[in-house]
Each structure stands twice: as C-alpha cells, then as structure tokens.
C-alpha cells in the first residue's frame, strides 16, 4: 500500500465514522419521565379524551417511547426512516463544517498563490465571503423550505455546495475565488435553516433534543476533519485547490443521503397531503402504533387550529396552498416574543467569538507561541510552519467532539435552559483565561500552555451550551406555519453577526489587542447568562404543538396581568 492510499483510507474512514457517530444512540427519555410507573403510562395511552392537556400528552409520549417499538416493530433501536433522517442531516452538517473550516488551512496557501502576503484585508474578505453568502442563503431558504419542502431545500443546498467548490477549485483570480465562496455560503444558509426545521418537525418529543444536537456534532466533526485534511494536503505538497475540491466530492454523498430521507410530516400536512404525511410519520416512528395514532391526531388538530387562525388574516398562509410564512411570525404576540428570544440566542452564540476562533485560531496560537510546543515534540514540523499551526488548532479543537456526545446525552435529561445556565459561566471564564494568557509577556513559560488549554475548555463548554441550543430552541418555539420564515430570520441574525465578528476581530486585535478583545466576548457572555435566566422557557420533552399552546397561555396571562395593572393605575388616578 502506498502512502497516498493509506492517507486516503484514513480520510474516508474518518468521514464515515463521523457520519455514523450518532446512529448508535438509543431513544432518550427525559429524567422527569423515567420515574413514571408503567401503569400510568398505560392509562395515558388508553384513549384520547377531549380535555387532555399538554402535560397529559407529554406523559403519554414518554410512556410510549419507553415501551414503544423500534425498527419495524422490534424492541430497541431507531426506525429505518429515523436512521435515514439522522444520516442525511448529519452529512449536511458535516459538509457545512468541512467547508467552513477548510478555508482556515486554505488561506495559508492562498496568500502565497495570489501574492496576498501584504494584503490582510483581502484575506479577511476571502475568509468572511462565505458568511456573506450565508446571509443571502438564509434570506431565501425559509421560503424555499416552506414552498418546496424541507428535503428539496437541502438538495438545493448540496447542488450549491458542489457548484461553489468547483468554482473555487478552478479559480485563477481572487474575484473568482470570492464568487465560489459566496455560492458555498448560500448553501450554508440552506443547511442552517432547513436542517434544524426538518429535525425539529420529524423527531419525537423525548428524543428531539438529542437529534437537534446532531447539526452541532456534524459541524464540529466537519471542522476537525477539515483541519486534519489540510495538514495532510500541506505535508503532501498539495495546493489550496486540493483542499477546496474535497467539498464537491462530499456534496454528492450529501445529495444521495438527503434523497433517502422522509419528508417532514408536519410540512406535508400543512400542504394538505394528509396520506403522505401519515405515511412519513409511520416511516419515522417504525409503524402504525397507538403512539403514532395519538401523535397523528394531535398533528391534525393543530393543523386545523392553524388553518382557522390563518383564515382570519388576509395575508396569512392557508393549508394546502403553500406560500410564505413571514406574515405568521407577526400574527400573535407569543410568536413575536418567541422570535425575539431565538434571535437573541443566535446573537449570543456569535458574540461569544466562535467564528473568530474558527477562522483565526492558527494566528492566535502562533501569537501565543504554541507552535513551539509541537516543533519540540516533532522537529520535522519546523519545515512546515503552516502544518504546525494547523496541528495546534486541531489539538485545541479535538476535545469538543466527546463533549458534543455528552451534550446529546444531557440535553433531554437536564433540559435546554438548565444546561445553558450551568455551562455559560465556565464559557465566559475560559474566554477570560484566554484573554489573560494572551496578555502575559512572551517570556512567561506557561503562556502557550494556558492559551491552548483555554481554547480547549472554551470549545467544550461552547458545544454544551451556545453551540446547539439556539438552532434547537428556534426549531421548537416557533409554530409550524411560521417555522421556515422564523428560522430564516433567526439564522439570518446569526450569519450577519458572524460576518461582523469575523471582519471586526482582526481590527479589534490591532487596535485594542487580542487579549482585551476576548475579554469583551467574556463580558457579553456574562450578560447573556442573565437573559437566559429571565427570558428563556424550557422546551425539553414537550411536543411542538403543546409548546405553542403553552406559549399562547403564557401570553394570555401576561396580557391579563398588564390589563389589571392598567385598570388599577386608572382607578388611582
């Protein structure tokens, strides 16, 4: 076996092992459901009374999942439709992460290929051009997902990824390279929007948190894979074209895996395709069981309520006619409030500095002197400083991968809100520690070790908190007829701030210093903790339809309280 064949087998093995990571996870039951006696579970499944509340439905769901069937009616495991769902959406996230991270290694070679050593501004534009395309992608992805379906939106994203990668590979000028990265960024927008909507609508309530963590698992794995692939290309003596061409090959596998996935039952029902929706639901749940009939009844009744509500609004969306759900976002105060919470979470995610760290970690670690640690261990790396900085980046990134699996385990047991409240303080602390390490004098012997450790700790607590939670909660809080549009608005906020952070990071570092810049991110995270404490509801273990009813009930009580206070003030006056 030649060295090239060995490296190729290693690379493909990582791709398929990462893509298969989540598929072995069993059904997850929230902690508060595990103590429910089996007799209560049987009673909660025995018939559907007219006065059943959201809590009754939650208990019934958990009982069904604990005693339900898996693949084709057998005990344990996922159904075949759920496996296709997991693999398809994981591959989308894997490609998005790979395409995001590969530019960090490619920039090290692009600067010499296009003679941009003295043009850091152009390098910054190349690095952030994909996020600009992602803003454009999210602006249209919600409409495409609502009009054509979640699967077709993802298939279109795979086509755009392949096209963007081919343009970048064939680029002979910086302008052509920018066009290719923008097209790839549009695909990012489709993945960011459609993947989370599709998973939220297809997952069972008790395992929805674990499945909605999949995009973060896949994106983080894809970024780590891109760092490793970049190191292999540099050591092999290849150029940036060999790095950027890999995405076109991966996009073919993404398209095939997406084609196998079932369509969202909620979207099909919203379009008036009841039989197709029921067939897709049975495919996802493993057969027509009592729990599936219960879920189908709830879906149908929720769709009828949405149809009645939309019929009263001239610009609203009606079932079976397709269309754009933007008007539904502002139809009710509860939806507007939920959208504001989702957008704020997306803003907090980006203001933690995550994309600045992804794009500029090699430069930050070079500033901290971390590369000298690796050249001491591997003297041969002194001839490849670019590979050395990427290896240091990979070393700081690898601890994130097991942490994401831990997040999948905890998110349905601990809850979204509690996980954020618990993990955000260490996240802010790690940013503060990184800021302190970069402010130490160059002669300090533990400066590089402290910087590397701080970045690793930051990555761990990020994937346990702000990594998966914003997209997960956005997919859960918004109603079905507004979910595509709401996800576009929410993810649009994410990508706009991502661009601003990526562009402003080198400017801030040159003006106030790298350490103070990370200290600002730490202060923002401390403020964000209070927002989560005061404004974020818990969504764990609750069906999407029950969440909508609970949010409407909260808004009704809030309005009634304000009305009473106004009346008291008028009476006193």
Automatic annotation (TrEMBL):
Which N-terminal residues, if any, form the signal peptide? 1-20
Task: Please name the taxonomic classification of the source.
Answer: Eukaryota, Cryptophyceae, Cryptomonadales, Hemiselmidaceae, Hemiselmis
**Which organism was this protein described from?**
Hemiselmis andersenii (Cryptophyte alga)
**One Pfam family, short name:** Sugar_tr
Record-given protein name: Major facilitator superfamily (MFS) profile domain-containing protein
| All residue ranges annotated as the Major facilitator superfamily (MFS) profile domain in the record | 85-540
Q: How does it sit in the membrane?
A: Multi-pass membrane protein
- PANTHER family xrefs: PROTON MYO-INOSITOL COTRANSPORTER, SUGAR TRANSPORTER
What sections of the protein cross the membrane? 123-141, 153-172, 211-236, 390-411, 417-438, 450-469, 520-539
Query: Where is this chain's protein located in or outside the cell?
Result: Membrane
**Gene Ontology, cellular component aspect:** membrane
Report which superkingdom the organism of origin falls in. Eukaryota
Cite the entry's keywords alphabetically: Membrane, Signal, Transmembrane, Transmembrane helix, Transport
The record's comment on protein family reads: Belongs to the major facilitator superfamily. Sugar transporter (TC 2.A.1.1) family.
């Amino acid at each position: 076996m030649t060295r090239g064949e060995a490296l190729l087998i290693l690379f493909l093995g990582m791709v398929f092992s990462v893509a298969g990571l989540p598929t072995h996870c069993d059904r997850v039951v929230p902690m508060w459901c595990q103590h429910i006696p089996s007799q209560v579970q049987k009673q909660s499944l025995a018939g559907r009374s007219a006065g059943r509340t959201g809590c009754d439905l939650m208990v019934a769901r958990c009982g069904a999942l604990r005693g339900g069937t898996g693949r084709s009616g057998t005990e344990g495991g996922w159904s075949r439709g759920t496996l296709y769902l997991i693999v398809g959406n994981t591959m989308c996230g894997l490609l998005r992460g790979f395409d995001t991270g590969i530019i960090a290694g490619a920039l090290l070679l692009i600067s010499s290929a296009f003679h941009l050593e003295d043009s850091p501004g152009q390098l910054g534009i190349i690095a952030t051009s994909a996020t600009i395309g992602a803003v454009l992608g999210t602006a249209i992805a919600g409409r495409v997902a609502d009009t054509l379906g979640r699967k077709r939106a993802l298939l279109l994203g795979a086509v755009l990824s392949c096209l963007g990668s081919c343009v970048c590979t064939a680029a002979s000028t910086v302008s052509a390279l920018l066009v290719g990265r923008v097209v790839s960024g549009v695909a990012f927008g489709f993945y960011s929007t459609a993947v989370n909507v599709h998973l939220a609508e297809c997952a069972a309530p008790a395992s929805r948190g674990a499945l909605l963590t999949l995009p973060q698992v896949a994106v983080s794995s894809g970024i780590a894979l891109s760092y490793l692939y970049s190191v292999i290309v540099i050591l092999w003596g290849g150029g940036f074209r060999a790095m950027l061409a890999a995405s076109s090959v991966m996009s073919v596998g993404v398209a095939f895996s997406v084609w196998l996935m079932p369509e969202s039952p909620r979207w099909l029902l919203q379009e008036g395709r009841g039989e197709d929706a029921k067939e897709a639901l049975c495919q996802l749940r493993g057969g027509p069981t009592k729990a599936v009939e219960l879920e189908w009844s709830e879906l149908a009744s929720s769709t009828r309520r949405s149809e009645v509500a939309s019929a009263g609004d001239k610009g609203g969306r009606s079932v079976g006619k397709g269309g754009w759900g933007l008007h539904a976002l502002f139809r009710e105060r509860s939806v507007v409030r939920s959208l504001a919470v989702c957008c704020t979470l997306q803003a907090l995610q980006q203001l933690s500095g995550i994309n600045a760290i992804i794009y500029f970690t090699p430069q930050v670690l070079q500033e901290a002197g971390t590369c000298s640690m690796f050249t001491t261990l591997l003297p041969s790396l002194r001839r490849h400083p670019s590979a050395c900085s990427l290896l240091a980046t990979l070393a700081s990134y690898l601890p994130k991968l097991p942490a994401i699996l831990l997040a999948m385990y905890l998110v349905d047991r601990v809850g979204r809100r509690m996980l954020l409240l618990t993990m955000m303080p260490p996240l802010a602390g790690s940013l503060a520690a990184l800021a302190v390490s970069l402010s130490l004098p160059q002669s300090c012997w533990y400066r590089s070790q402290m910087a590397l450790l701080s970045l690793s700790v930051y990555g761990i607590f990020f994937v346990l908190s702000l990594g998966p939670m914003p997209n997960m909660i956005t997919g859960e809080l918004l109603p079905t007829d507004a979910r595509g549009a709401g996800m576009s608005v929410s993810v649009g906020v994410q990508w706009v701030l991502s661009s601003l952070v990526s562009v402003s990071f080198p400017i801030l570092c040159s003006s106030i210093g790298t350490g103070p810049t990370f200290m600002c991110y730490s202060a923002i995270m401390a403020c964000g903790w209070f927002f989560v404490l005061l404004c974020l509801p818990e969504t764990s273990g609750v069906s999407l339809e029950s969440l909508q009813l609970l949010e409407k009930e909260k808004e009704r009580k809030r309005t009634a309280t304000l009305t009473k206070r106004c009346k008291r003030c008028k009476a006193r006056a």
